[in-house]
User: Fold these one by one.
Assistant:
Number 1:
Amino acid sequence: MSEQALAHQDVALVDLIDRLLGSGVVIAGDITLSVADVDLVYVGLRALVSSVATAVGEEPLLPR
Amino acid sequence: MADRGLWVYCVARAGDPLPERLPGVDPGHATERIEQGTLAALVSGVALAEYGEEALQRNLNDLAWLERVARAHEAALERALAGATLVPLRLCTIFDDAAGVRAMLDERGAELSAALDALAGREEWTVKLLVDRDALERAARADASGPEADAAAGSGAAYMLGRRRDREVREHAGRLAAGLAGEAHERLREAAVAAVLGRPQNRRLSGHDGDMVLNAAYLVERGAVPRLRALVAELEARHGGLGARLEMRGPLPPYNFVPEGAPA
């Protein structure tokens, strides 16, 4: 088992973005940046993620 | 017009300690707490030249900027988590001033209090299950053993048969992987009060070895963390032959276990 201490660990960026933008309580601040804008960036990032996966020709192991 | 706004990291109970006077996402401004009623928010100032509406649209599309801000936000949350039950907020929740934050704590108070109650004494842990594709295909091949592959060596029929068997082996390996992921998740949720399944990540991006077949988050009573850890070790030992590796991380800011309410 590889359980690592959280502090100073180099958390994968995708993991982090997934958590911080993809979940959690959504509260509309005064500065909006509407939720839709955040979603757009997020979707864009996920698209980037998928295109990299396609580019390296990785087949998913799990049946879809 | 003001030249700074207030970035909100999380909400906690007013009585709980929060990490104040530490550098925030905008390094020029330190973290501070704002209390309203029974709740407290951890905030820090942000320069509107960088975090205002227009600047944000631009900066959020700059991956290096996003990474720096995301890591700073997460670091503040992890420090806060050491002393308090907290409800983490989505990245880039920014108010004009303290009055705006207080108004938010009032308006969303009932929902935030309920979320804090549900999280008290509990921790979010994530578990990723990675397997070795070659080991899985070897296991799948062993399951599908039969003499016919060599029966008509060199013929077109043998070639087609070989192709079909390769495909069947891949499909069977996929089913083995899915079964393993399902079993692991079922066992691990026994130790949890709630569980959330995420998408397994691509190895090129997350930098891990092996194929990720499970990427899950578990909300665990603090006292049950050793049980979760024991289950992880047990699953890894039992499925070592398939190259199974389980990575357990936590406690994390409980992003996966707060209500995803619509904006107020």
Number 2:
Amino acid sequence: MKEELFVSGRAIPNIDPYLNIWHWSIPVYLFLGGLAAGLLFFAGLYSILGKEKEMPTTVKWATFLAPAALVIGLLCLFIDLKHKLYFWQLYTTIRLQSPMSWGAWVLMLITPLSFLWAGSYVRELKPSWKWTFPLLNKVEVWVAAHRKGLAWAMVILSVILGIYTGILLSAFNARPLWNTSLLGPLFLVSGLSSGVATILWMSKNHAERVLLSKIDLILIGIELFLIIHLFMGFLASNAVQVEAAQLFLGGEFTVFFWVFVVILGLVFPAILEILELRGIKIPVVIPALMVLIGGLIFRFIMVEAGQITRYLY
Amino acid sequence: MATKEIQDRSRTYLNPYAAGIWLGLVLLMTFYITGRGLGASGSIKTAVASTVNTIAPKHAQQSHYLSQFITADENPMNNWLTFEVIGVLAGALISGALAGRLKLKVEHSPNITSQRRLVFATLGGLAFGIGSQFGRGCTSGAALSGMASLAAGGFIAMLSIFGAAYAFAYFFRKNWI
């Protein structure tokens, strides 16, 4: 291992004056983590509410994507690690004040849970399916018997997962753009919206789609509200945060953020969903895909822009 | 809104004269808001320039034509026309949905196949794209916006585009009638 010794806090390659250490894998992970949180939250919620029959895609079929999203997301995190073989050390401790520790443990719990949940519906999707190991039949019976409890666990863990994707950044207090407590709720709502958009895309049940469209509209409304408050907070704060906000209000991220995230990723899909609720035929793939792409671009922008905001001038 | 009502409207189009007035008002608003006119071919031009500049930057910088649109500090795509075209697509989508015409299909005369229509549309589009660069603009940028500002070039562009279309329509008429 090559060791580096810093004798000054200034002019450190890739750290000062600008952070340049997080690349594509982090925003992709944040997106997939949020997406999985959204899928599992609504699956758990509607299972608790006893709506398996009315909302089959939400409770059953869309959850098949969650384990895949989590595994690919974790792979992205792993790729980002400098010392890959030390990752297990996260699991030698529990630190309540560290978002990294919360994330590591939540992922450790929710990933197997998502496999159990989706796995328990495989036979319903494909009745001829036979588990290779007899033990898995027992697991399937156990999951079915404890579904309510597991659904509660899934709802709670998915909220923690969704919030943590934002807190991971906001706990980084040396970067003014990230250092706001609104980032946690904003990433959670954005993740829930991505999840709803995915379920909406997959669902063939009219009643389910109408309900999901309404939920998505509410989530988009909350997201816009949080974005406005995020900028109000920055502009009412100290000079470094005002400067961080300027990146989006005339600076280099202005166009990308307002055109691709806010207009094409939130407002426009919301208009299409409103039209669809009023009975006008719109292929659901268009608003769903726009919400998903908007969510992905949002995370890329936040990670990228956050790294170039700083305290020292 | 009842679906049947929308289907009934799917074959009714806006009165062309009313549409012309609307288009004129859109142009007026464009001048008022952005300080310049509408355009369509310009966004394709910058898309081509930035694509070539990304894939083969040396070639783009050596090319007399493409190098005009490439500057070191700014992305050529960061241009009002790019966003105008995104807006056109978004608006067309809503308009098509409201009229009940939002489906994937190739519109063509019953006398020809979809394939023939697509081939001719592509060839025509290519020819028009090249022509618009010789003429420094297309129907929107040169003719419409140019004439609105009473530029002589705008009137010449309009007469040339529609004059040439009249002259050549005879040879391609079988594709439609």
